[in-house]
Amino acid sequence: MLDWLADPWTSALMRRAFFEAMLVSGLCGVLGCFVLVRGLAFLGEAIAHTVVLGVVLAFLGGVPAAAGGAVLAVVTVLLASAIGSDRRFSVDTAMGVLLPSLFGAGVALIALSDGYRSTLADVLFGAILATTQTDLALAVAACGLTGLVLALAGKELVLVAFDRAVAQAMGYRTGLLDLLLLGVVALAVVVSLRAVGNVLLAGLLLGPPVTARLLCRSFWGMAAWSAGLGVGASVAGLYLSWYVEVGGGAAIVLVVAATFVVVAIGVRLTGRVGPSERRVLSHDAYTAVL
Amino acid sequence: MAYGDRVALDEVSFGLHGGTFAGVLGPNGAGKTTLLHALLGTVAATGTIVLKGRTSYVPQLTAVSEAFPVDALGVVLMGRYPLLGWRRRPGRDDRRLAGELLDQVGLLDRARSPFGSLSGGQRQRVLVARALAQEGDVLLLDEPLTGIDAPSQKSILGVIRAQCAAGRTVVMTTHDLAQAARECDRLLLLNRTLIADGTAQEVLRAEVLGRAYEAEVLLLDGRAALIDEGAHHHPPTKPGGLP
């Protein structure tokens, strides 16, 4: 049994993969809670796709992929909020337009540029085993920065999510707080992209928070559970990928989805679902997980 | 005060003494909520607004999410945030105060209940307790009594009276003329501008109401009745969470 547990850790590749997966899933677990309570599930999914264009552009321009991805994440958010500020459209509509256009542009660019073709699969499904020391350092930095932001303004970000009008009445600059939150979410998305790829990223960003929401009644309790579930799923998923030989990213997200299904059924069977819990989860969130 | 090129309120001028309970009346779209936002400083207003002390605000119940993972005590504690500043979390004193305020609105036993599991009236009482936790000098409430049960209305009116007795100024928007006449010291009647300002006897006269409500006022035996009673919640805002 001990050998069985220790075996994957003998590989340096796997060790780095474990650390990377735990870092990004913990990060996504916490930030995904904000994405979920703000009703921005679709935004998370949209960013995960549109950053591909940034990554490809960065590759072509010879700058770090993370920088290109971050720029596109910010561009997506700004465009969405510009389109959404028109009374005739919701932000969801804006995302629905932006996701396919920008992602399509990214895929088209990949097709046109010879050198990039080989790593398209990595962009879509992640390459957790290809994690480098630089990736790990980036993930640690992203976690540190997010921790700092939450330590400074965590309760204010929760207040804005709960009751925007009152936050404004209290004198908070809600626009700046939004930018701060979207900034760290974009960072988390870009950093996680290498590990799980954009197709599976939404599962990592929303799966653990949705599951945690079923178990918790307070925001920070939910965030803690969500981070724990994410880290647990990434460890379990990597064991799965080691012994069953499926892709690491896919295995992690499968464990996330399985956990959600088990918890959802368990909560329903034990009758722990109150009227407020039943209303919690948007259809978007369910779709993203499944 | 204007939204874009649409002027929502024009030529409004009044003063309120400390300890006054003022009711803001007027038909839908008259600018009642806008007046509160102007006092809060969250919409741009031309002219001068002088407020003695800090404001606390109770938004319309429909503007607050029911699905958020927070309990009643947690909501009240949010009222302490501006006093705590960045980084600091509510401490034991804040919790004790929040508990006392929940007791004042009769919900101490529901402190640990999820906000979304409370009834509309109970949620409104929690929001009032949160506003009190801010310890402002001017309390602004947007339709706090609309669509909630009688015990909750009574509880909220009791809290408002206690605040006035402590010298604080309270401004409440409402659609219920009869209740406003009974409860408020002073009535402000709006319809894009200040139509009337005074006591219930001065404001609630047929010819004055006619100017604010136009065709919606019905005269019966020399007494005015409003045709547009009923639900007056503002329509929900657009879906999606971005500003």
Instruction: Report the sheet with the most strands of chain B, covering strand number, pairing sense and barrel closure.
Output: 6 strands, mixed
SSE topology string of chain B: EEEHEHHHHEHEHEEHHEE
Instruction: Report the CATH architecture of chain A.
Output: Orthogonal Bundle
- The CATH homologous superfamily of chain A is named ABC transporter involved in vitamin B12 uptake, BtuC
Low-confidence stretches of chain B at least 5 residues in length (pLDDT < 50)?
1-5, 229-243
The overall average pLDDT of chain B, rounded, is: 79
How many angstroms separate the termini of chain B?
Answer: 21 Å
The CATH class designation of chain A is Mainly Alpha
CATH architecture of the largest domain in chain B: 3-Layer(aba) Sandwich
Shape assignment of chain A: globular
Count of discrete structural domains of chain A: 1
Rg estimate of chain B, integer Å: 18 Å
Task: List the helices and strands of chain A in order.
Answer: HHHHHHHHHHHHH
Largest interface: A-B, 48 and 37 residues
Return the structural class of chain B: alpha/beta
Q: Strand tally of chain B, please?
A: 10
Report the span from N to C terminus of chain A: 32 Å
CATH fold category name of chain A: ABC transporter involved in vitamin B12 uptake, BtuC
